[in-house]
Amino acid sequence: MTITVKNPIVDMDGDEMTRIMWKMIKEQLLLPHLAMDLKYFDLGIRHRDETHDQVTVDAANAVKEYGVGVKCATITPNAARVKEYGLKQQWKSPNGTIRSILDGTVFRKPVIVKNIPPAVRSWKKPISIGRHAYGDIYKSVEYKVPAAGTAELAFFPAGGGEKISLLVHEFKGPGVIMGMHNTEKSIRSFARACINYAVGETSDLWFGAKDTISKTYHAFFKEVFDQEASTRTTDFKKKGIRYRYMLIDDAVAQIMKAEGGMLWACMNYDGDVMSDMVASGFGSLGLMTSVLVSPEGEFVYEAAHGTVMRHYYEHLKGNPTSTNSVASIFAWTGAIARRGEIDGTPAVVEFARRLESIVIKTIEDGIMTKDLAAIAEPKPTNYAGTEEFIDRVAASL
Ligand code: NAP
Ligand code: MG
Are 336 and 5 in contact (CB under 8 A)? Predict the structure, then answer.
């Protein structure tokens, strides 16, 4: 029996090994069971080059129109790729382009499987991390102070008027100095995207900063989060979730003792560091999904890894591969479930959840790709090839 998906999903194809898996996932796991209207955009490097990257912009605009998208990993060209594919230019990262059009925040979430134990014993449920991807030290100016002198922090209002100036430090000798900033607009967008994600995923929202020390800068982030969260209290209640502000060091300590299941919203630097810690704590890149959420509540799901180039080259040589398709499958189930939730079609949500549990059960039954076989407990005697894993999941569906 096929299930009808009421509204379209934006399908963004990609490159290399993930492009191969993308096709298999659609043909074997999805299209036999779902009647879907996929708005297809080929973000493969050749087509981006042919369209002068217009296809990426069109895809992002389609997500604005339909609200839900799913994206395959894509090549971000460097000089070597320009040569390899004979590109007209070094096109920008498609993820960057889509993110800036949607003004979105990226959240990472691991897939939890019983026989791939996380490094932290207490972690039983996924911990999602949202990183504010604008400003702070990533858009700062800095220089070495050569010798003794006075450093000031000055602001000149655009319409004229009094300048604001603060003494940073009276240097008695050489040192270093940095000026950093953020904008209310960006912080607010980030807070809204975090709240949309937490409500969408039914998970508690944690936000940590150091407002005891940074009584203006960090405190401003806290204020904005508090304000935005207070406008959504009914949604929080309806979902039975809560918003917690914590000092960042307290949040770090609590995370190590927690079961998981929360969204941890992080300032830019904290997110950079903590997302790598949490990701490696959960095991494999092949189990890490990611979703871009806009302040308006548009969602683009994808795997957190790249196009797995090394495996693709083996595949081109005709050698067997064992590439993990789990994060790509979960990108699809994330998008399908979100579509079903927005459309109010529980059968669609159920299909996505069923596919997810079959994938997890398959791994728990000892059928997994090489990357997982290396870290599974107990270790399986064999590992599955790229095609075999998807075949096994398809058979169980
Ligand atoms: P990658 O695709 O993430 O792969 C790096 C290595 O991680 C692989 O060689 C493999 O290790 C392991 N790995 C990653 N995903 C795996 C999976 N699903 N199953 C099994 N092993 C997996 O990074 P890359 O090779 O450095 O980058 C390739 C291309 O991806 C680049 O052109 C980059 O621009 C692009 N990229 C795109 C995105 C995106 O679209 N979101 C993100 C990152 C990178 P072993 O070789 O040891 O098996
Ligand atoms: Mg990092």
Answer: yes
DSSP, collapsed to helix, strand or coil, labels residue 203 as: coil
Strand positions, DSSP E, the chain: 3-4, 9-13, 34-35, 38-42, 68-71, 105-110, 128-131, 141-145, 149-155, 164-171, 175-179, 204-209, 243-247, 262-266, 288-293, 299-303
Q: pLDDT tens digit string along 13-33?
A: 999 999 999 999 999 999 999
For Cα atoms 25, 390, 262, give the angle at the middle one, nearest 5 degrees: 75
Q: How far is the CA of 267 from the centre of ligand 2 (A)?
A: 12
What's the pLDDT band for 285 if we cut at 50, 70, 90? confident
Q: Which ligand is nearest to the CA of 276?
A: 2
Distance CA 46, CA 14 (A): 10
Q: Which residues of 284-317 are buried (b: 16+ CB within 10 A; e: fewer)?
A: bbbbbbbbbbbbebbbbbbbbbbbbbebbebbee
Instruction: Kindly state if the Cβ of 56 falls inside 6 Å of ligand 1.
Output: no
**Residue of 107, 29, 45 lying closest to 82 (CA atoms):** 45
Distance CA(7)–CA(2), nearest Å, equals 15
Ligand 1, pocket-test mutation among 91, 305, 311, 330, most atoms within 8 A of CB: 305
CA distances, 68 to each of 3, 237, 264, 297 (Å): 18, 25, 23, 9
* Structure tokens belonging to residue 275: 């997302």
Closest C-alpha residue for ligand 1 atom 33: 75
